[in-house]
Design a protein that fits this description.
Length: 52
C-alpha cells in the first residue's frame, strides 16, 4: 500500500525536487532583477530631485 504513494516513487520524487529547484531559481531571479531595477530607478529619481 505505501509503495503506491507518489512521494515514495523515486522518479516522481526526483521530478518534484527538480520542479521545486526551478521555481526557487525563478523566484530568486525575479527578486534580484527587481532589486537591481529598483536601485537604478531610485538613484535616477534622487538625482532628478537633487538637480532641481
Amino acid at each position: 500500500m505505501i509503495q503506491n504513494i507518489a512521494l515514495y516513487n523515486s522518479n516522481v520524487t526526483i521530478i518534484m525536487v527538480v520542479v521545486f529547484i526551478l521555481v526557487c531559481l525563478v523566484l530568486v531571479g525575479f527578486l534580484v532583477k527587481s532589486m537591481s531595477g529598483g536601485d537604478t530607478t531610485n538613484s535616477d529619481s534622487h538625482t532628478d530631485i537633487n538637480e532641481e
